[in-house]
Amino acid sequence: MSKPLNLSVQLYSVRNALAEDYxxxxxxxxxxxxxxxxxxxxxDYLDELRSGLRKYNLTxxxxxxxxxxxxxxxxxxxxxxLGIQTVIDPHIDRARWQxxxxxxxxxxxxxxxxxxxxxxxxxVGYHNHAFELESVIGGxxxxxxxxxxxxxxxxxxxxxxxxxxxxxxxxxxxxxxxxRVVALHVxxxxxxxxxxxxxxxxxxxxxxxDFIAAAPAGVLxxxxxxxxxxxxxxxxxxxxxxxxxxxxx
Length: 249
Description:
This protein is α/β, with parallel strands linked by helices. 43% of the residues lie in helices and 14% in strands.
């Protein structure tokens, strides 16, 4: 793999360990070699992130938070303080993805949030699950329809695992969405929607390198496991080792 990887990790993967020992878990993440993290519900953990990111030389270029339903001024103020650049809404209810009109309204909400974010020097994005791909209208996936109505400034973080589980040809999807994609969620498993079947990257059956190769150059590759039968913290470390070795090969 010749394309250099820009690696991060979604902290939701290690949420249980964080709940027990936030500082110690960040130390382990840094010890694996990660220099970037993607917090979740970050406004609930501001004190821990303020100290931990600095202490372990970690940055958080992206974050997941319920942006559309949340207090956007509070979110953007906190994001700017932590050095976050892109605030990503990780989930908009599946019921809103069934018609073009509904999807247009999602785009309207994200576009409005993006205008507010610009006042803080930030950008806004959206992260998919499976249902945005399972929704197919006029031969197009719901996520593709969303992209057509988004303002140019609004970006996408494509969860490659969920796109695959939702029935998409992931490399074709990434090429279709093109430079709108600034980040990927890179995860592995058996490709099903059973999150317990997810494993460290490189230990499953998904063609993760094909997905990465189809994405724009320089895209942020964020390791994530929604769940697993394996130890989640170790799986995050094993994923880093696999991806780092692969890009050097």
